Amino acid sequence: xxxxxxxxxxxxxxxxxxxxxxxxxxxxxxxxxxxxxxxxxxxxxxxxxxxxxxxxxxxxxxxxxxxxxxxxxxxxxxxxxxxxxxxxxxxxxxxxxxxxxxxxxxxxxxxxxxxxxxxxxxxxxxxxxxxxxxxxxxxxxxx
Amino acid sequence: xxxxxxxxxxxxxxxxxxxxxxxxxxxxxxxxxxxxxxxxxxxxxxxxxxxxxxxxxxxxxxxxxxxxxxxxxxxxxxxxxxxxxxxxxxxxxxxxxxxxxxxxxxxxxxxxxxxxxxxxxxxxxxxxxxxxxxxxxxxxxxxxxxxxxxxxxxxxxxxxxxxxxxxxxxxxxxxxxxxxxxxxxxxxxxxxxxxxxxxxxxxxxxxxxxxxxxxxxxxxxxxxxxxxxxxxxxxxxxxxxxxxxxxxxxxxxxxxxx
Lengths: 143, 258
Fold this sequence. Notes:
The complex is a heterodimer. By secondary structure, chain A is α+β, with helices and mostly antiparallel strands. Chain A is 30% helix and 28% strand. Chain A has a single domain, classed as Heat Shock Protein 90 (2-Layer Sandwich), CATH 3.30.565. In chain A, helix 1 (28-41) runs antiparallel to helix 2 and helix 2 (46-65) packs antiparallel against helix 3. In chain B, 65% of the residues lie in helices and 0% in strands. Chain B starts with 15 loop residues before the first helix and ends with a helix. Mean pLDDT of chain B is 73; it is low at 1-17 and 166-193. Classes of the chains: A alpha+beta, B mainly alpha.
């Protein structure tokens, strides 16, 4: 891992963690672990932690597949009121974002099922996919 | 609420007093008397079978597990020392469990996974099942860590390691098989979602039946992993692995160069 950092500060109603990792398939595990750790610290049920980790795998895979290849991925994980929000971004721009066909992509369909809110967006770090999940199924929150 | 402690002897329904006396007499001669050794095996076979059943449902047949546990029982009989002053069941239980765990380590893993991680994973699977049943919901990572005496990081790591676990029963029929079409018929108002997935239908159709079923239950009917586990009679972690594998397969089918 070429570079990593952790930030604790005001993001939403809680803290945030930010990691910057080389854009390689093997870093998926690192990112999954970070997201899972934040969610477990917030008391997520294990199966919802698992949903978050599956969603993370899909998002990272999608960001890595986009062209041109990106050098780094930047992932920010925010502790929100009653949940977690993840924003994963490429540091290398793409020609179009959201990519063509994103609405009906496998990524969108998976995120729709596994998260409570998701979107393709442009973040401060670059083209990004954001998704959020509540800790308690059916609960209303600021997500 | 606590998870089973394998160090504790199990009540196997024998008359403790008479069995203990007979066991003592048999152990006094077992070194030179094959019949006494055979009788000891007979008396304590229920203990081995009981321990084997604790590991049933993790991809190895119960018959195989009983065989493995029986080897552990024989080893325990050969090594038991009456002068130590503990009951045979208390001595034999960790020996038999060790044999069962060694069996899973040697037979069940598709890729090389460190022994510590394999043992943590087995512990986590057991704890997950026990806790989910007693709580009636998916336990939190913190609850799993407390009940399994693992750290929260170890729990998460063990959960990920399960993806490297391979068992032959993964693709076995579920019994009365549910098809994708059957499941879609139950999705009711989720027609829009189902139509969007239609583009993926050819790839979904190529998935093993069990993965298709779990995918459909999760994505079309919106069941949680715990609810799916209950519905199809698998552990939540088993469902997680199958779901992960199905998504990997779909991703690869859509982009073979990925």
